Amino acid sequence: MTKPLTGAQIMCEALIREGVEVMFGIPGGAIMPFYYAMWDYRDRLRHVLCRHEQGAGHAAEGYARATGRIGVCIGTSGPGATNLVTPIADAMMDSTPLLAITGQVGSHVLGKDAFQETDITGITMPITKHNYLVKNVDELAYVFKEAIYIATTGRPGPVLIDITKDAMQKTTVPNWDIKLNLPGYKPTYQGNRRQIREAIKLLISAKKPLIIAGHGIIMSGAHRELQEFAERLRIPVVTTLHGIGSIPENHPLCIGMPGMHGWVHVNRAIQECDVLFNIGGRFDDRVTGKASTFAPHARIIHVDIDPSEIGKNVRVDVPIVGDARLVLQALLEDLPPPSELAELHTHASDWMEHIREMQDKHQGKQQYKNRAAMANMALPPHDVYEALSRTLNARGNYRVVTDVGQHQMWAAQLIDWNHGPRTHITSGGAGTMGFAVPAALGVAIACPNETVWAIVGDGGFQMTNQEMATIVQEGLKNVKVAVINNGYLGMVRQWQELFENKRYSGTPLSGPDFAKLAEAYGWKGITVERSEDVQDAIDEAHATDGPVLIDFRVEREVNVFPMVPQNKSIGEMILSETQA
Amino acid sequence: MKKHTIVALLQDRPGVLSRVIGLIRRRGYNIESLAVGHSETPGVSRITIVVESEDVEQVVKQLYRLIEVLKVSDVTDDPTVEREMTMIKLHAPPAARHEIISMCSVFGARIVDVGSNTMIIEMTGTPAKVENFIEVVRPYGIKEMMRTGRIAMVRGARGHNAGEYVEPATNGVAVPALN
């Protein structure tokens, strides 16, 4: 190709070459040349106009998390770019492949406080995997190729490209054939074979082995390998918040979620196990509790694609740097024949029996849902989750996006996650309230034939609910929103109740009539105040050919249990208000 | 907290130094000295950072996460040659000059400028020797002083040859000449 193109046209061509089909963004002065060029590519590059750049960023994240492909968001210079900061930070914490494209003022005024100028590459340096300021049109073709390669390979993450307006306007003949030149970026995918054999030796000799399955399983698509590995060794599997979907929860080896709001039997199992095999999890403090007391009897095997994660939070006996899927494949290849696993199988089945006994004794899901305290409530939140879980599992073909807070933990705990990877999408590491509604928009575009539920608190909902308009404009009929409305910033209130003498400072929260608000946006709005109406509302949402919001006005002061107080060992869980 | 000397090779791209410094700043560690310059390989910069840190191993690992970082090592406990240079503008009235000149020859320092009442002295040596020299001349009256950061090189065959990390054809240049 020898035809000269404008920088903006090169950007469009580059995105198409990398397989991008959808972008979420908002135009503005500095990015206008890109939008000018986009018009000619509109049949191949779908642009979704969001109502706030934060929404565009989270929508791109939702798209990426549902598909594993790169999510693309666009903002103009200045406030357009700074509004992208939160989703970029969120993507960094949750290793989401995200490309943020921002317009920048003309290179001749760069650094002179021009209108809508912000140093967005400076601002996002610590929250991107990498970023670029492009002032020269000749660099664009190469930079886009490199940026997407970096965002999607190794440990995925957000990459930002800031482009001066003149670089988008100038023309050049793009060179698409420049080889990537990244001598400092060579992710390790294959695990070290010697370490893999070491891991097998350790696992085979274990009496109480345990697997922690993290986000890496989902991102590398290792769920089948994980299940086969666990089955062949008969080792119980713990799924972290982002590891949900690694193995179906109704699988006999899946024992549930660990950590601050994990189950007692899971945390006890971690504290008792003698070999802990963490694959694709990063020992986040919400999983480990007080790290120095975590898994005190365990030799730890840690598989992570990012070497800087290994040994960061907990000591590791067998480190393996590599891709979760490839490492699991190697482990499966090197496993000894079943005859040599007999001893492990015996130990593992005793161990599993012990874990299930603990599960029955402590508050398992059922016991927890049926607590006496819930008996007199008009609408305990748990009834909503029970009905949702029942309905979703019966229907299949769904994705659930959650926000951050109490409703998020309930969703992780109380829904039976039996339908594979990428069905549970949430903001984990950064804990970004306002994630769910826009992320559901992105998921709905990625999965047009599935029902996408956003479960969100009334606090988080009011941060980004304007994307309901985008959902209508895009004609997305598959989005359903469940607002778990308790009139509080509930998780903060819970901490205030349990640890701060009920000083409800800044947590009581009012809102509009959410059903009416939804109606105003052109949605169907339903209000539910009693348990007996929950199922009908959910069924109506499914039966409606269009977006539906259900305002579940749940009991106001219900707490998430079990709970590990901050900086406590995960062995010290509290199960009710009286234990706090 | 222990002082660590870190040597790193970086692709010479805009903003790379800022990324490295930002990563150390994020941990709240104080950078005691920093020296940056070209390495033997075009397109590759070499830096030496002296930092007070409790957990330098983690810093080194995180530095590797930066796309443009080719090689990082903590050379604190390795056999190295370390040097630092200082320029000192000293109060030097004619009566004191003779003494100052002989002091300089003891330390191997060079006088690079003489004014009516001042001298600029250039001195290179180990950080300890530079420190020592500064204390010796301080009583004459230091008007200005500038110290470079420490630079370090591992002795013997082992070390930080940038050529191992970049293809000779491209020499690590960020975006090769286009069109």
Task: Outline the structure in words.
The complex is a heterodimer of chains A (580) and B (179). Chain A is an alpha/beta fold. In chain A, 38% of the residues lie in helices and 16% in strands. Chain A has 3 domains: 5-172, Rossmann fold, CATH 3.40.50; 193-361, Rossmann fold (3-Layer(aba) Sandwich), CATH 3.40.50.1220; 365-560, Rossmann fold (3-Layer(aba) Sandwich), CATH 3.40.50.970. Chain A is built from 24 helices and 20 strands. In chain A, helix 13 links the parallel strand 12 (275-279) and strand 13 (299-304). Chain A is globular and about 70 Å long. Chain B folds into 2 domains: 2-78 and 158-164, Alpha-Beta Plaits; 81-151, ACT-like. Chain A, domain 2 (Alpha-Beta Plaits, 2-Layer Sandwich). Chain A binds chain B through residues 121-122, 125-126, 129-130, 133, 138-139, 142-143, 150, 172-173, 175, 178, 181-185, 306-308, 311-312, and chain B through 10-11, 14-15, 18-19, 22-23, 26, 57-58, 61-62, 64-70, 165-167, 170, 172-176, 178-179.
CATH homologous superfamily grouping of the largest domain in chain B: ACT domain
The major pleated sheet of chain B works out as: 5 strands, antiparallel
CATH superfamily of the largest domain in chain A: Thiamin diphosphate (ThDP)-binding fold, Pyr/PP domains
What count of helical segments of chain B does DSSP give?
Answer: 4
Approximately what portion of the residues of chain A adopt beta-strand conformation?
15-25%
Order of helices and strands of chain B: EHEEHEEHEEHEE
By DSSP (H or I, 4+ residues per run), the number of helices of chain A equals 24
What top-tier CATH class of the largest domain in chain B fits best?
Alpha Beta
Q: How confident overall, as mean pLDDT of chain A?
A: 96
Spans of chain B of at least 5 consecutive residues whose pLDDT stays below 50 are: 169-179
Integer-rounded radius of gyration of chain A = 24 Å
- Per DSSP E runs of 2 or more residues, the count of β-strands of chain B stands at 9
Unreliable segments of 5+ consecutive residues of chain A: none
Oligomer: heterodimer
User: Class of the largest domain in chain A, according to the CATH hierarchy?
Assistant: Alpha Beta
- What is the CATH architecture assignment of the largest domain in chain B? 2-Layer Sandwich
